[in-house]
From TrEMBL:
The lineage of its organism: Bacteria, Pseudomonadati, Pseudomonadota, Betaproteobacteria, Burkholderiales. Residues 9-124 form the Response regulatory domain. Keywords: DNA-binding, Phosphoprotein, Transcription, Transcription regulation, Two-component regulatory system. This is DNA-binding response regulator, OmpR family, contains REC and winged-helix (WHTH) domain. Residues 133-231 bind DNA. GO terms for molecular function: phosphorelay response regulator activity; transcription cis-regulatory region binding. Residues 133-231 form the OmpR/PhoB-type domain. GO terms for cellular component: cytosol; protein-DNA complex. It comes from Pollutimonas bauzanensis.
Length: 237
C-alpha cells in the first residue's frame, strides 16, 4: 500500500475557531487530508459531494446541531462514514441520543487530541478491514461487512452503521451461540472502556433499527447472560 492510498480523508466540523485551528495543526501531517466546516449545512454539503474516511462532528453548531447533521447524513444522504461526536454534554441521555442517530463514537470536551487521533485511526481501520470481509450468514439473514447491509431471504435490506453494525456483526458471527455481555463489549470496543449501560443503549438502538426496517428485533436478551441473534421466525431452526 502506498502512502497516498493509506491517507485518511477527514472532515472536521467545528465552529469554535481556536479548537478548529488546534485540530488543523494537530492533523496537519501527510497522513491526513482535511476538510473543514463551521456549520451543519456546510457539513452536509461536503458529505454529500465527497467521500470521507471519518467525520469528526461537534454537537453545538450554529443552525443545524451535530445531532441533526448526524440524523440527516444517515437517513437522507444514506452515508455510512464513521462519525465521532464531540461535545461538552456528558449525560447518558445525550450519548444515547447521539448513538441512536447513528454516531460511532462520542468524545466529551475537553479532550486530549491524541485520544481523538487514536479513535479516528481505530474507526478507519475497522472500516478498511470490513470492506474486504466475506458475507456472514445465519438462517434467513445475511450481513455484508463491506457495505454494512443486512439482508433477509424475503428481499428486505437495511444498512447499519457504526456501533450498531459492529454489534450485529458480532452476533451473526457467534450464531447460533450467544455472546455474554463481556464478550460482546470486548468484540465491539476492544480494550477501550465501555460500561454495561453503554452496551445496553447500543443494543436498544440496534433493536429499534431492525424493528423499523424488518418489523423484527432479531436480538434476544438472555437475562443475566448476554445476547443472541434470532433469525426471521420462518427460517429459524
Amino acid at each position: 500500500m502506498t502512502a497516498f492510498q493509506d491517507r485518511i480523508r477527514l472532515l472536521l466540523v467545528e465552529d469554535h475557531v481556536a479548537l478548529a485551528q488546534n485540530l488543523s495543526e494537530y492533523f496537519s501531517d501527510q497522513r491526513y487530508v482535511l476538510d473543514f466546516a463551521s456549520d451543519g449545512l456546510t457539513a452536509l454539503h461536503l458529505i454529500a459531494t465527497n467521500d470521507y474516511d471519518v467525520i469528526v462532528l461537534d454537537v453545538m453548531l450554529p443552525g443545524l446541531s451535530g445531532f441533526e447533521v448526524c440524523r440527516r447524513l444517515r437517513s437522507d444522504i444514506q452515508c455510512g462514514t464513521p462519525v465521532i461526536l464531540m461535545t461538552a454534554k456528558d449525560q447518558l441521555d445525550d450519548k444515547e441520543q447521539g448513538f441512536t442517530l447513528g454516531a460511532d463514537d462520542y468524545l466529551v470536551k475537553p479532550f486530549n487530541l491524541r485520544e481523538l487521533q487514536l479513535r479516528v485511526e481505530a474507526l478507519h481501520r475497522r472500516r478498511a478491514g470490513g470492506a474486504k470481509a466475506a458475507l456472514l450468514q445465519a438462517p434467513g439473514v445475511s450481513f455484508d461487512p463491506g457495505t454494512l447491509q443486512v439482508h433477509t431471504d424475503n428481499g428486505a435490506a437495511l444498512e447499519l452503521s457504526g456501533t450498531a453494525a459492529r454489534i450485529f456483526e458480532a452476533l451473526i458471527r457467534a450464531y447460533p451461540d450467544f455472546l455474554s455481555y463481556e464478550q460482546l463489549r470486548d468484540r465491539v470496543w476492544g480494550e477501550r472502556e465501555a460500561d454495561m449501560n453503554t452496551l445496553r443503549t447500543h443494543v436498544y438502538a440496534l433493536r429499534k433499527q431492525l424493528q423499523d426496517g424488518f418489523h423484527l428485533s432479531m436480538i434476544k436478551t438472555l437475562h443475566g447472560r448476554g445476547y443472541r441473534l434470532i433469525p426471521p421466525p420462518k427460517a429459524a431452526p
